[in-house]
């Protein structure tokens, strides 16, 4: 196992992130869409709760 300085590791990670493409953006969009669907379903379905008093 070779030892590399922190600066070399950081630049290597930054160049790998540039080559990754739009993956992080798509992940964020998917998470926001799923959360939005869950919140919308909760908002719409909570009106169907019946109170039998």
Counting DSSP H or I runs of 4 or more residues, the number of helices is: 2
Total beta strands = 0
Content of β-strand? under 5%
Backbone shape: rod-shaped
What ranges have pLDDT less than 50 throughout 5 or more consecutive residues?
A: none
N→C terminal distance: 71 Å
- Global mean pLDDT: 79
Radius of gyration: 22 Å
How does this structure look, described?
It comes from Streptomyces lincolnensis. This is Membrane protein. This protein is mainly α and 53 residues long. 72% of the residues lie in helices and 0% in strands. The protein is built from two helices and no strands. The longest helix has 23 residues, at 23-45. The protein is rod-shaped and about 65 Å long.
Write the layout of secondary structure elements.
Blueprint (H helix, E strand, L loop, with lengths): L5 H15 L2 H23 L8
């Amino acid at each position: 196992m070779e030892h590399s300085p922190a600066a070399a590791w950081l630049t290597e990670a930054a160049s790998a992130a540039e080559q990754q493409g739009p993956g992080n953006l798509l992940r964020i969009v998917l998470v926001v869409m799923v959360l939005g669907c869950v919140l919308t379903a909760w908002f719409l379905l909570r009106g169907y709760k019946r109170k039998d008093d």
